[in-house]
Amino acid sequence: MYILIQWWGGVPARIIRKRFSDEIINKLLKIQWWQYNPELFEGIEIAKIEDAIVELERRIYYGVEKYECEKYCFIHKENKVQHLNFNGEIIEERIV
Predict the structure, then answer these.
(1) Which of 72, 66, 64, 69 is nearest to 86 (CA)?
(2) Mean pLDDT of the 19-32 span
(3) What per-residue string of b and e applies to 15-34 under the rule 16 or more CB within 10 Å gives b?
(4) Any idea where the domains of the chain sit in the sequence?
């Protein structure tokens, strides 16, 4: 998360402050770091975020593969459970 919020049950969240500058937030959003294997971060000191972004951009530029994980989608209308891959294609479907 890139901002810190204040939140109590039933009360809308209020932004307290941003964790990073708008420039850093935009760079993180642009590289879409969450789409890559966690190994992308090996040896990177995240505490130095500017340096970390430069290294992440370099690794992505040189061809790090995107991470493909499995996800689940629950279809309640027809009592079905569908097991989807990262692209949303059905791998398995079961009646529950």
Answers:
(1) 69
(2) 90
(3) eeeeeeeeebeebbeebebe
(4) 21-65, 69-96
